[in-house]
Amino acid sequence: MTAPQNVNGPQATIPPQPALCPVCRLKPPHPLLNCGVVKLGPMAMKSTIEQLERENNPAHRQILDQLRTLYSNVTNIARRMSAPIPMPLNEVIDLTSLQ
Ligand SMILES: [Zn+2]
Predict the structure, then answer these.
(1) What does the pLDDT average to over 84-88?
(2) 80 alpha-carbon distance from chain centroid
(3) Distance from the CA of 31 to the center of ligand 1, in angstroms?
(4) Average pLDDT over the chain, rounded to an integer
(5) pTM, entire model
(6) 3-state secondary structure of 76
(7) Torsion, Cα of 30, 35, 37, 40 (10° steps)
(8) Does residue 7 carry a pLDDT above 60?
(9) Which of 30, 45, 53, 95 is a Cys-bridge partner for 71, taking CB atoms 3.0 to 4.6 Å apart?
(10) Alpha-carbon torsion 59, 47, 43, 20, what sign?
(11) Distance from the CA of 83 to the center of ligand 1, in angstroms?
């Protein structure tokens, strides 16, 4: 009686890297909107973007693009909500165009 063949036998000395979300590196990959880094807000997203840019890993290029897009969306929304809309004195602003 011999032991059943095991693909993770003695020959596999290096365990396969568990796939982790390249953004938070804490959990298996998940949608970006569910990522802990995204939930932490723009500051966390920005530092992760900078980290991914430094690493310059081609495998992470797509998620980096997604994260950049999401970051700019989030910061645009935050800016519009927190900053007053500039009101030039001599101009009438059509507010309907902002909606
Ligand atoms: Zn994540």
Answers:
(1) 63
(2) 21
(3) 8
(4) 82
(5) 0.63
(6) helix
(7) 180
(8) no
(9) 45
(10) positive
(11) 29
